[in-house]
Each structure stands twice: as structure tokens, then as C-alpha cells.
Amino acid sequence: HRYCKKLYLLKAQSHDATQEFFWDGRQPLRIPALQQNLIFQMVKNGGLNPEIAGKNLCVRFRQGGEKIKPVGQKHTRTLKNLLQQQSIPPWQRERIPLLYLNDELIAVCGYWLADAYAVKTGDGLLPVLVDEHSNLIAVP
Q1: Are the C-beta atoms of residues 77 and 67 closer than 8 Å to each other?
Q2: What is the spatial distance between Cα 108 and Cα 49, in angstroms, rounded to a whole number?
Q3: How many CA atoms lie within 13 A of 25 on its CB side?
Q4: Alpha carbon distance 66, 136 (integer Å)
Q5: Distance in angstroms (rounded) separating the CA atoms of residues 110 and 114
Q6: CB–CB of 26/56 below 8 Å?
């Protein structure tokens, strides 16, 4: 692939961007196509409201038309625009897990958290992708 005047040599990877995973956030969620687990990591002074752990969360991938109001920003933005501004290569964009609560996008894992679900002070949860063989433990 070529992107932003750089050449990328990648292994062929299959990925079905239409798949959905239902998750309560308490145990690692294995995402086979990414060969990674999604966990919540406790962080100081940031992250998502800890009350979302135990709720019916859904992990999906980009289909187009997604919007989010990132923490600290005044306006809702399209995910397409945010990804372009961060110069994330197009072939990586469809592999970024999107975390939903009640069909509302609350996190773009590794990038943005929705302002409405973020803690303003105190500890919060950060959705993190980890290697399948990592020793990190999900939030109890």
C-alpha cells in the first residue's frame, strides 16, 4: 500500500467489518481477526465512566456515517473526518474497534472517547487492545 508518500508492506489479513461482538466489559473480549483482546484498563483522571462495566456493550467496526463528540471538543464530528485528520491509513480504519452503548458510539478504541460518557474527575475505564498472550487483566 502507498499512503501519504509512504510505502507499506503488509501481510494479507482477512477481516469482516460487519461482525459485532456483545460484551459486558468485565472479561477480555477476544477479537479473532485482530488477534487481540479488548479489555478495560483503570486509569486516573480520565477514561469512561466506570458504571458502563457490566452493561450490554457492543463492539463493531466502521461502516460509514459514525459520529462522536470527543472529550474536550465543542462539536460532534464524523469518524471519517477524525480518522483523516489523524492520518490513519485507510486499510487500518476498518479494523479499529468501536464501542457502543445503546447504539451510541462511546469510544473509538485507542483514539477517542465520547464526552458524554467520560469522567470529568476521578478514575475511569479505558478500552485497550492487548496482545492475546498479554498478562494484563480485565477490570473485575
Answers
A1: yes
A2: 15
A3: 24
A4: 30
A5: 12
A6: no
Cα–Cα dist 114/48, whole Å: 8
Q: What is the pLDDT of residues 123-134, one digit of tens each?
A: 999 999 998 766
Cell of 68: 462522536
91 touches 10 (CB < 8 A): yes
How far, CA to CA in Å, does 108 sit from each of 6, 7, 17, 37, 81? 25, 26, 14, 15, 13
State the pTM of this model. Answer: 0.86
User: Tens digit of pLDDT for each residue in 36-69?
Assistant: 999 999 999 999 999 999 999 999 999 999 999 9
Question: Do the beta carbons of residue 33 and residue 13 sit within 8 Å?
Answer: yes
